[in-house]
């Protein structure tokens, strides 16, 4: 299994990074080496989709199990995803990381982070899985704290560390339950002995907590919008684009593979959480003014969409409707792939903007399309893709998810019959809000006039960064125009998990995709692309033919403002105001306060808006207060007399012995 | 190894020696004078040495004689003698310690013995009868040793409680067959080192606070006495 060699290879790169972080050549070695290894992961992953299952046992790890590795189709798909995202991030970093002030805080952890993610995917026993999971968490935590002196970053790292520990603990519990009393920690043994119904339900809930908190499922998402933006941008791209997918892998591996058959209600739970995540995430995103935080909230939304697909797959599978399960699971995996593509691209774009202007606050950007034209085009493709505009890839996977939603009348349970349309509505709402969110993000950052000196003097990003962005933009277009190829590639993964697959798509005429039957609904990305391209060319031709040739130079129409300043444009806050008024007044308790200076005062009037996060205020703040209260009460124990301590030891011993007596 | 019948004389002697140890533990519970307490400690260790020697005899395990010798030499003679010197050096030999109601403490001790029998006898139902009784009695010695530590205020009496607790552990260890000598020697040495450390600390405490009443320590930490 040559793919196992990439893990030690990446760890060696981490050591190189730790040994000589200050040298410029180390940066090239580490990122170039990561690029090569990620390309290897991508190739091995794609190869594993069709190859027979490979198994390898190394004599390290737990003594009686060893380190078990296994690459099947599912692992292959996610390996390819890690390879793709990692290769893109490494390519981007070749140029972007040139301006890193503290390379010694990034270089050692970056390859180790990649190695941890790859190891999670190929691990085949609980111990190796959890070890790799924690490696992934800890290295990414170190990367989040790379710029720990910036305001808010240490807090983000703290919250992330707590949530990562929590997620590891939850998964530990899940594996403990799956292993059963005989302690069978190898995944093969777990597959051979599916747990009883009650234990399976507990495992499902605990896995949802463990993997969900890593993926950013509401209400466990709070760390994500804090931690992802805090890291350097290529790491943000990896965390948002790839690490959340590894979390989804963990969920699929446990729930679809190890757990055996599940009850129908598990689909309802996953669907409810997925729908809430999609809507809450995008609502946050649409009101956010920090560009990288906006992207992180949008990650939360996309995770919600993926989980809607997974919930549908669970619901269909529990009812023996394997074709529907295959469709829903394909949609979820396809969307995971797409999200890796466009979210990495957008984080690269945000990194390029941050590098060029030093700003993440959208209110200080604007007009960058003139200063950074290549970045602007690539980011435009990414924004269109994430807003699910055809013919790009975001549309294809969301359309597939909708097709799966439309199959719900075939299900017998009323709980699902009611839940799935609600989720369909949530999905539609999220898609619409995402479109407005990225219109806003792109318009405020790249169009209009610069809102600050820094934005006015921005420079185009370097060659490597642009190459990474252009490559991902091209992939977004390719997977959008040829979705049938992706669906057919995913077939082996879906086949092993749902015992069914979607119909072969590439045999359809004109590359049309038809998820159930051509009579029901079909979509042709190529046709849409052709139509858009042709109509654009025709419009261009018409404009250039019919318009007058003469160029007339005149002052632009100033909308009645005698002194046009950039402040008179739409701002990020004003663009979001209608949505804030409609949705956030109740949910986020949004408040706008206008301060008017008294007559005669020359100060400008100000408008401030204030929103609260219901999840943070409702769940985390009380939890934090409770922990503090208990800690304060327990603090008394620090100041007791020696005799009291002895008394406690004695009392504990006696109580335990008495419990033992009664137990017998 | 010969099987020891639960109805033979050797069993009765082993059992009564272990019982004697529990009895001496009870003597510690109510002994309020420090010097007398040290004498009881010496007696405790002496009974332990006898018991271990008897185990060595009936189990046909000569290495246990070494354990018995260690117990006799260190625990019955050396440590009580050193503690006695300390008491004289500190001028504590006339000290009478207040123990919270003797009757209540004794009742608690009886309850502890009942508890340890109740715990141990069902658990060790299949074990060798000698080891079984020994372990139950040893657990009561340990628990009473802890009780002594909890009810005393004086650091020296707490040390005495600790030593008797350790004797209980030794009794259990020798009652069970096949316990290697290395374990016992290392336990004996760790106790010796603990004793040295405690002795040094006692003098340091004494130097600083002019008393070995642990309540003074608590006051210096700002806790309640």
UniProtKB/TrEMBL annotation, chain A:
This protein's UniProt keywords: Cell membrane, Membrane, Oxidoreductase, Transmembrane, Transmembrane helix
Membrane topology: Multi-pass membrane protein
Compartment(s) of residence: Cell membrane; Membrane
Name of the protein described by the UniProt record: Hydrogenase 4 subunit B
Transmembrane segments: 28-46, 75-94, 106-123, 129-146, 158-179, 199-223, 235-252, 264-287, 294-316, 336-354, 375-396, 416-442, 463-487, 523-543, 645-663
Ranges of residues in domain NADH:quinone oxidoreductase/Mrp antiporter transmembrane: 123-406
GO molecular function: oxidoreductase activity
Pfam families named in the record: Proton_antipo_M
Organism of derivation: Rhodopila globiformis (Rhodopseudomonas globiformis)
GO annotations of cellular component type: plasma membrane
Predominant cellular place of this UniProt entry's protein: membrane
């Amino acid at each position: 299994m040559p793919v196992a060699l990439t893990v030690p290879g990446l760890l060696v790169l981490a050591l190189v990074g730790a040994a000589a972080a200050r040298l410029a050549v180390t940066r090239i070695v580490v990122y170039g080496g990561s690029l090569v290894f990620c390309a290897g992961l991508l190739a091995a992953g794609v190869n594993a989709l069709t190859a027979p299952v490979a198994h390898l046992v190394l004599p390290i790890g737990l003594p009686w199990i060893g380190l078990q590795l296994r690459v099947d189709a599912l692992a292959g798909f996610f390996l390819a995803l890690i390879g793709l995202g990692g290769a893109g991030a490494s390519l981007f970093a070749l140029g972007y990381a040139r301006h890193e002030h503290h390379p010694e805080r990034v270089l050692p952890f970056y390859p180790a982070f990649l190695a941890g993610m790859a190891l999670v995917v190929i691990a085949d026993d609980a111990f190796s899985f959890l070890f790799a999971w924690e490696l992934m968490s800890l290295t990414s935590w170190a990367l989040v704290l790379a710029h720990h002196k910036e305001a808010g970053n240490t807090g983000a790292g703290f919250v992330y560390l707590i949530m990562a520990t929590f997620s590891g603990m939850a998964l530990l519990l899940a594996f403990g339950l799956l292993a059963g009393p005989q302690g069978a920690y190898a995944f093969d043994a777990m597959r051979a002995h599916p747990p009883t119904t009650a234990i399976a339900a507990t495992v499902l809930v605990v896995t949802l907590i463990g993997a969900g908190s890593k993926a950013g499922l509401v209400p466990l998402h709070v760390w994500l919008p804090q931690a992802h933006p805090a890291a350097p941008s290529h790491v943000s791209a990896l965390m948002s684009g790839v690490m959340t997918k590894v979390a989804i892998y963990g969920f699929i591996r446990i729930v679809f593979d190890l757990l055996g058959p599940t009850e129908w209600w598990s689909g309802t739970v996953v669907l409810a959480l997925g729908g809430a995540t999609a809507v809450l995430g995008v609502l946050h995103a649409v009101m956010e003014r920090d560009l990288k935080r906006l992207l992180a909230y949008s990650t939360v939304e996309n995770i919600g969409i993926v989980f809607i697909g997974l919930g549908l797959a669970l619901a269909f599978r529990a009812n023996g409707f394997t074709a529907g399960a295959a469709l829903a699971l394909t949609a979820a995996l396809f969307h995971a792939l797409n999200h890796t593509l466009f979210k990495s691209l957008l984080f690269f774009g945000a990194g390029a903007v941050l590098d060029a202007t030093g700003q993440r606050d959208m209110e200080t950007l604007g007009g960058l399309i003139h200063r950074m034209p290549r970045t602007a085009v690539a980011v435009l493709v990414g924004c269109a893709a994430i807003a699910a505009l055809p013919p790009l890839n975001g549309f294809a996977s969301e359309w597939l998810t909708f097709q799966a939603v439309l199959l719900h009348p075939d299900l017998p349970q009323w709980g699902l019959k009611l839940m799935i349309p609600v989720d369909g509505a949530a999905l539609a709402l999220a898609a619409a809000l995402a479109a407005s969110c990225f219109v806003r993000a792109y318009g405020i950052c790249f169009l209009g006039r610069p809102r600050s000196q820094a934005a006015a003097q921005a420079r185009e990003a370097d060659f490597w960064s642009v190459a990474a962005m252009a490559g991902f933009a091209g992939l977004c277009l390719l997977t959008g125009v040829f979705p049938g190829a992706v669906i057919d590639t995913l077939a082996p993964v879906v086949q092993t998990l749902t015992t069914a697959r979607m119909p072969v798509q590439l045999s359809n005429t004109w590359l049309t995709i038809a998820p159930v039957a051509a009579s029901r609904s079909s979509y042709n990305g190529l046709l849409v692309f052709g139509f858009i391209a042709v109509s654009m060319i025709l419009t261009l031709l018409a404009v250039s033919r019919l318009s007058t040739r003469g160029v007339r130079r005149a002052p632009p129409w100033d909308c009645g403002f005698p002194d046009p300043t950039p402040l008179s444009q739409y701002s990020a806050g004003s663009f979001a105001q209608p949505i804030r008024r409609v949705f956030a007044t109740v949910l986020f308790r949004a408040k706008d306060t206008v301060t008017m200076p008294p007559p005669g005062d020359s100060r400008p009037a100000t408008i401030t808006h204030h929103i609260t996060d219901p999840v943070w205020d409702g769940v985390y703040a009380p939890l934090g207060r409770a922990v503090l209260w208990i800690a304060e009460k327990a603090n008394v124990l620090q100041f007791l007399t020696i005799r009291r301590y002895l008394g406690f030891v004695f009392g504990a011993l006696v109580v335990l012995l008495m419990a033992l007596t009664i137990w017998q | 190894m010969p099987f020891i019948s639960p109805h033979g004389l050797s069993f009765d002697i082993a059992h009564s020696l272990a019982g004697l140890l529990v009895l001496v533990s009870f003597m510690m519970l109510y002994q309020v004078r420090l010097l007398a307490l040290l004498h009881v400690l010496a007696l405790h260790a002496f009974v332990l040495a006898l018991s271990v020697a008897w185990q060595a005899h009936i189990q046909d395990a000569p290495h246990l004689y070494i354990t018995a010798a260690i117990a006799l030499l260190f625990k019955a003679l050396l440590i009580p003698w050193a503690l006695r010197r300390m008491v004289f050096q500190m001028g504590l030999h006339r000290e009478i310690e207040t123990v919270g109601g003797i009757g209540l403490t004794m009742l608690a001790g009886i309850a502890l013995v009942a508890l340890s029998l109740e715990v141990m006898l069902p658990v060790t139902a299949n074990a060798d009868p000698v080891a079984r009784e020994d372990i139950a009695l040893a657990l009561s010695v340990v628990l009473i040793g802890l009780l002594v530590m909890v009810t005393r205020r004086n650091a020296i009496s707490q040390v005495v409680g600790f030593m008797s607790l350790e004797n209980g552990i030794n009794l259990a260890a020798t009652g069970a067959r096949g316990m290697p000598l290395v374990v016992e020697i290392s336990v004996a040495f760790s106790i010796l080192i603990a004793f040295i450390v405690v002795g040094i600390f006692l003098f340091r405490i004494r130097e600083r606070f002019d008393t070995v009443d642990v309540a003074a320590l608590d006051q210096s930490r700002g806790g309640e006495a």
